[in-house]
Specification:
One of its GO terms (molecular function) is acyltransferase activity, transferring groups other than amino-acyl groups. The chain is of the alpha+beta class. 37% of the residues lie in helices and 24% in strands.
Length: 156
């Protein structure tokens, strides 16, 4: 099995980004960072600020992961070559639900690392919600280390 990254087209970007904003908003609600009311609208506003030119916003790279021509997942990288050392951040990574459990999450991570190496980017970063233990385990097993930890306690 060999995973390939293909550039994401504008139509697919619009559809996928709507899905990502729903996921992100729910993650913020579940983490206790945002109230449920208005969360999706807030995510869309933040996204519009981050990506004023959509799929064409400089420094952002959107990919479809394919295996044998079949879509299996998606990857959004943001690169900042002016940072020293040059860095990239995985803004979103997703394996299609029907394709999970086959090692494709790791393959997408490896493809992201390969893209970084090809673009002389020395550091790859990501954010993961604390309750997403499956993703945390995958990232740690792939060599990612915690660099910041934000913790909260509900006071009643």
């Amino acid at each position: 099995m060999s995973l390939t990254l293909e550039p994401m087209g504008a139509a697919q970007f619009a559809s996928w980004m709507n899905h990502v904003m729903q996921w992100y908003a729910q993650g913020k609600v579940d983490a206790g960072s945002w109230p449920e009311e208005g969360a999706f609208e807030r995510a869309r506003r933040e996204n519009a600020e981050q990506l004023p030119d959509g799929v064409q916003t400089p420094g952002n790279h959107f990919f479809v992961g394919t295996v044998d021509g079949r879509e299996v997942g998606f990857l959004w990288l943001h690169s900042d070559p002016d940072q020293s050392p040059p860095t990239a951040t995985i803004e979103a990574i997703e394996v299609l639900e029907s394709e999970r459990g086959q090692g494709l999450g790791r393959a997408l991570l490896e493809a992201a690392e390969g893209w970084c190496a090809d673009h002389s980017i020395a550091t790859l970063r990501l954010h993961v919600f604390g309750r997403n233990t499956a993703a945390i385990n995958l990232y740690e097993s792939a060599g990612f280390e915690a660099t910041n930890v934000l913790m909260a306690k509900t006071i009643r």
